Amino acid sequence: MTLLINIYKKYRLQILYVIMGGFATVINAVIYWLCSKITGNVAATAIAWFVAVLFAFFTNKLIVFESKSMEWLCLLREFCLFIGCRLFSGGLDLLFMYITVDICGYHGLLMKVISDVFVTIINFIGSRFLIFKR
Questions:
Q1: Packing angle between helix 72-97 and helix 41-59, nearest 10 degrees?
Q2: Alpha-carbon distance 87 to 16, whole Å?
């Protein structure tokens, strides 16, 4: 048990990020799946992305990186940088989904999960070193 506690203490940030990222990924995939029944692939991906980004901003700010400041300028700065980073990774997600699903014909939900792994890595780097840096 002590080993697990030591691992958690050493990698707390990464563990929490993966857990919250896992929740965001599930939210993204579920929203994508629900919306894909009504809209096309690209619209479903965009809607799922937006909902997951809102969830991710608040969990990253408050739980993962513990940026507690609710000062207007700090909040605005973090939110704008977060959205910018997510727009970049969201664009990569849309491009990946378009190529793999619409052009290559691969299974949408499987490609969504694969895409989300890469997007999560990109987003961690942006959040850790640009947005919520201490």
A1: 150
A2: 22
d(CA 36, CA 41): 6
As for how many domains the chain has, the answer is 1
Angstrom distance (rounded) from CA 78 to CA 43: 26
This prediction has a pTM of 0.73
Do 20 and 64 form a contact (C-beta atoms < 8 A)? yes
Residue 86 near residue 61 (C-beta atoms within 8 A): no
Cα distance between residue 3 and residue 105, in whole Å: 45
Residues 18-38, mean pLDDT to the nearest whole number: 93
